[in-house]
Amino acid sequence: MTKTDRILGGLYGSLVGDALGVPVEFAPRSARTADPVTGMRAYGTHHQPAGTWSDDGALLLCSVESLAEKGDDLQDMGGRFVKWLDQGHWTAHGEIFDIGIATRSALGRIRSGVPAEEAGGRSLHDNGNGSLMRILPVALACSGWDDNFLSDRVQRASAITHGHGRARLACVFHALFVSELLAGRTPQEALESCRRRFLALFADHPEMPVFRDLLSEPLADRSPDGIGSSGYVMDTLTASLWCLLTTTSFSECVLKAVNLGDDTDTTGCVAGGFAGLLYGREAILAEWVAALPKRDDLARLFERFVESLPSSS
Ligand SMILES: [Mg+2]
Predict the structure, then answer these.
(1) Which is nearest to 161 in space by CA: 176, 148, 171?
(2) Distance from residue 224's CA to the centre of ligand 1 (Å)
(3) What is the 3 state secondary structure string of 291-313?
(4) What integer is the mean pLDDT of 36-64?
(5) What spacing in Å lies between the alpha carbon of 265 and ligand 1's midpoint?
(6) φ/ψ (deg, to 5) at 239
(7) Which of 10, 9, 22 is closest to 95 using CA atoms?
């Protein structure tokens, strides 16, 4: 499999995972146990047609576009997030039906002149998954770089909407894991290597106690009851890794993520990104990709993004 197959798998996988989760967002796990999602649904929570991605997908696409056109320019990236909020840029159907509190506050600050890198809230309450859900393109853009460089760039990109150390470090963990998948590692190998690299970067960081379980526990052995699926950044990161580690195909992974319930679109989006990177673009069900709107625009955008990366073959 080429790196391009993996990158396209990650990008389409994120959108597909988001869209699978949108119709059942906020419903509890018990509702999914009784009525599991098995494919693209229409309507439901947000009354959207099948294949509609949410804020996760839209902000991820704004990030892809910014990286493809401007490279490392976070002011531009933040500006495109504002364009999403004000004009529906990169929405599936022109409508914004879902936005996190921290993201709304941060984009308001950018609009009033605060530099994008300083816009994200930094309190303990600002540790939702709103930067993790959109960080994949940044992770892809700096996956071949030195870990200190990767960490700095990913943390700064997180801070556009989520500036607390926990959300920033969760994004770095995600980006390190992405770089391992992109290099063709198995999920377990990727996790072990990612743990070593993360420890080397942050051994003395005040947030390290929060990451202790993720760094030491045999994650794949955890029971579903030990996997949270709320909008808390550590839940989304842990759940997405767990879904990848405990399944053997793109479809199985992404449906397992959505059927955890609660913040289904974001868990689906992050897990779908991982699974797309692992299994590649062709492993995503054709009917799921066909359900996405704006497919020509997506294909052109992703082609420009891949061409902008240093070495993507
Ligand atoms: Mg969403």
Answers:
(1) 171
(2) 22
(3) HCCCHHHHHHHHHHHHHHCCCCC
(4) 97
(5) 5
(6) -65, -40
(7) 22
Tell me, in angstroms, the distance from the centre of ligand 1 to residue 98's CA: 6
Domain for residue 290, yes or no?
yes
Specify the pLDDT at position 313. Answer: 44
CA distance 23 to 192: 34
Rounded distance from Cα 231 to ligand 1 centre (Å): 10
Instruction: Return the CATH number at 117.
Output: 1.10.4080.10
Go through 98-126 and write b for each residue having 16 or more CB atoms within 10 A of its CB, e for each that does not.
bbbebbeebbebbeeeeebbebbbeeeeb
pLDDT digits (tens, 9 = 90+) for 253-304: 999 999 999 999 999 999 999 999 999 999 999 999 999 999 999 999 999 9
Cα 204 to ligand 1 centre (Å): 33
Task: Tell me the CA–centroid distance for residue 310 and ligand 1, in Å.
Answer: 30
> What is the C-alpha separation between 17 and 285, in angstroms, rounded?
12
Round to whole Å and give the CA distance between 107 and 91. Answer: 16
- The answer to the question of residue 292 being in a domain is yes
Cα 232 to ligand 1 centre (Å)? 13
> Does the pLDDT value for residue 133 go beyond 50?
yes
At 146 the pLDDT is 96
Q: How far is the centre of ligand 1, averaged over its atoms, from the C-alpha of 21 (Å)?
A: 8
Number of domains comprising the chain: 1
Alpha helices by DSSP H, listed for 42-182, are 55-70, 74-87, 101-111, 136-141, 147-158, 165-182
Using the mean position of ligand 1's atoms as its centre, give its distance from the Cα of residue 201 in Å.
30
Nearest to 137 by CA among 288, 270, 2: 270
Rounded to the nearest angstrom, the distance between the alpha carbon of 311 and the centre of ligand 1 is 31
CA angle 79, 91, 289 (to 5 degrees): 130
Q: What is the mean pLDDT of the chain?
A: 97
Distance from the CA of 266 to the center of ligand 1, in angstroms?
6
Which residues span the domain enclosing 296? 3-31+51-308
